[in-house]
Amino acid sequence: MLPIILKIRLMGMAAASWTAAASPMPLPAESVATLFATRAATPVDVDLYDENDHQKGHIAIWRDGSVDEDTRVIVKRMFRCRKTHREAMIHHTTLAMLADVAERYEGKTIEYVSAFRVGHAESRTSPHRDARAIDFRIRGTNLREIRDYLWRTYTEVGVGWYPKGQYIHIDARPTMTDMSWTFVNGTNRYHPYWAELARKPELETDAAQMAHARRSGS
Length: 218
Fold this sequence. Notes:
Helices cover about 40% and strands about 20% of the residues. It contains 7 helices and 8 strands, in the order H-H-E-E-H-H-E-E-H-E-E-E-E-H-H.
């Protein structure tokens, strides 16, 4: 049985060959729909870079955050606690968010800072301790855009912004209240304005119109 990541790449090669052999005429609507359906029916190829061990990795995650058994072993090993070397499976909602980001920024590598953490210094209430959280960045992208997208799109989650470290925290919070924050000067500042704007974009439009009015003197 072929590993899932190899299956995806073989399918991609086949699709590329079919496209190259096709005529330059636009594809019929039915063919476009078929291509989109095929894409949705395959897992997302996620390129990862471990900032702790400085190693690259590749996994395939379905859009609901599920993985096959072989990938499950890899996920547990890659996102293990760096202090204790213990392993745990990352929550499926957290993996779904990671897959979503990977698909939106196709071809980009997700660099993760930390994930599962169970060291003595880790808070008992930390989502990292329950393998529900991942801290990550994508170099060469607008991290604020990724942050706002995740906060706007998902519920029962936590999204934290670490501007000094230039990374985003995401975690799953099933049955819990959403939480957003910005980490500044060693302190979490909860319910930041960026989170309010992300879920109510009309506020940003109003603010821009007011700023324009002030500049024009009207």
